[in-house]
Amino acid sequence: MKTIITAIFAVALIAGGITYFYFYRGNDSNQPYRTAQIQRGNVILSINATGTVEPEEVVDIGAQIAGQIVSFGKDKNGKAIDYGSYIEEGTVLANIDDSLYSAEAAQANAQVEQNMAAVKRSEADLVQLKAKLYLGESDWNRAKKLFPREVIAEASYDSFKSAYDTAVANVAVGEASILQAKANLSYSEASRKRAERNLSYCTIKSPVNGIVIDRRVNIGQTVVASLNAPSLFLIAKDLKRMQVWVSVNEADIGKIYPKQPVRFTVDAFPGESFAGEVGKIRLNASMTQNVVTYTVEVNTDNSNGKLLPYLTANVQFELKCRENVLMVPSSALRWVPSPEQIIPGFRSDLKKIQTATAVPGQKRNSEAYLWVRNGKLLEPLKVHAGLNDGYMTEVEGDTVKEGMEIVAGQQQQLQTSKPETNPFAPQVLRGGGGGGRR
Q1: Which residue did the predictor score with more confidence, 278 or 145?
Q2: How far is it, in rounded angstroms, from Cα 209 to Cα 63?
Q3: How do residues 37-62 score in pLDDT, each as one tens digit?
Q4: 229-243, 361-375, 391-405, 424-438: lowest mean pLDDT where?
C-alpha cells in the first residue's frame, strides 16, 4: 500500500514540474525580449521597381513580297534556321516560292532585248534618212543654180525643194525615233531591275550577325506583304549586352540619372544579384489608371550568357550606399521599453529618448538610442543613426561594437485560451435565489 501511495506521489510531482516549466518558467520575466546583434555590412538606400530584360538591339526581319515559304536556310552548324540559331550577316534565313517572280524577270529581260534591237533599228533608219537628205540637198542645190537660167521647169524646181524639205523632216523624225527607242529601253531596264529585285526578295537573308530569338513562320505558310511587311524572324545582334526596361513611378523619376548604379535579381537565378547602370530615361511616359510611369533603360553585361530575353527583373536603383558599416534592425531604434523595464537612473530621460527614434530617410548622425541588458533591466545606449534602407540602419558610437547584443523588442506573451465549448451541448442554467432564469 505504501508503495502505491509513493508511486502516486511521484507521478503527481512530475506532472507538477512539467506544468510549472511550461506555464511559469516559459513566461519568466527574465526572458521577455527579442534580441539582435550589431552586424557589419552594407546599407543601401534604393528605389525598387520591376522591369523586363531585353536584348540591347533587335532586328525584325520581314518580307517585302507575297508568297509561300518553301524552305529555311542553314545556320553555322549546318542545321535549319530555328529558335536560338546563331547566324552571320548574309545567311539565308528562308526561301519564298519564286516561280512567278522568275517569270516576270525573264519577261522583263526579253523586253529589254527587244528595245535594244529597236534602238539599233532606229539608228540604222536614221543613216538611211541622212543619205536621202544628202541626195535631196544636192538636187535642191543644182535646181537653185539651173532655175534662174530657165534650164529646168518651175514644177521640177518645186519638186526638188519639196524633196529636200521632206528629207530634212525625215531625219528629225529618225532622231526622235532613236530617243523614243532609248527611252523605251531605259524603261524596260528599270522594269527588269524591279523584277530582279523582287526575285531576290524571295531569298530572305540576315542583315546582321546575331541569334534568332523568334521564328514566326513555318514551311508552307503564305506571307502577304501589304502596307506593313509581315514579320518572319526576330534577331538579337548581341546577347552579351542586355538591357532592363524598368517602369519607374513619376514620384521617383526625379531621383534617377544616367550612369546611376543599379542592382537587380531575376527569379531564374534566386539569390544571385546582377549589376548595371542607368543608360537612358525615355520621355514618352505612359499612364495606367491615372498612374504615370517612365521607362528607364538599364545597361548590363551578360558575357556569361545567364540572362535570357524577357525575364522579369526586380530592380534597385542605388541612391546612397554605406559600405562595411555597423548596422542594426531599424525596429530596434524605434522601440522604447516601459518605465518599469528601465534602470531607475535613466527613467527620467525617457521622454527625451522617445523623441529620438530613428526615422527612414533621416539625415546622418542623428541621435538615437539602443537598449542593452543590465541584469534584469534595460539600459539605454546612445548612438548616432546613419543611412536607413527601411530594414537596417547604420549606427555609430564610442561603445558600439560588432556582435554586441541589443534588445530589439518585446516578446509576445503566451496567453491561455478559454476551453472551447460545444454550442450544441446543453447549458447549465445559473440563477440566484429560487433558481429562476436570468
Answers
A1: 278
A2: 19
A3: 999 998 888 899 999 999 988 999 99
A4: 424-438
Whether residue 420 is contained in a domain is answered as no
Identify whether residues 302 and 284 lie together within a single domain: yes
Same-domain check for residues 362 and 403: yes
Looking at residue 3, its pLDDT comes to 55
Whole domain around residue 85: which residue ranges?
Answer: 59-97+202-236
Query: Are 220 and 143 within one domain?
Result: no
The domain boundary residue, chosen from 304, 322, 340:
322
pLDDT of residue 8: 57
Higher pLDDT, 183 or 419: 183
On the question of pLDDT at 356 being above 80, the answer is: no
148 and 280 in a common domain: no
What pLDDT, on the 0 to 100 scale, is given for residue 98?
A: 93
Q: Do residue 250 and residue 305 come from a single domain?
A: yes
On the question of pLDDT at 230 being above 90, the answer is no
pLDDT of residue 420: 52
Could you tell me if 208 and 340 lie in one domain? no
Q: What is the pLDDT of residue 388?
A: 85
Give the residue from 185, 213, 236 where a domain finishes.
236
Assess if residue 1 is contained within a domain. no
The answer as to whether 143 is a domain residue is yes
Cell of 14: 512530475
Burial class, 367, CB count within 10 angstroms (exposed 0-12 / middle 13-18 / buried 19+): middle
Answer yes or no: do 206 and 163 share one domain: no
Averaged pLDDT for residues 282-293: 92
Same domain membership, residue 305 and residue 227: no
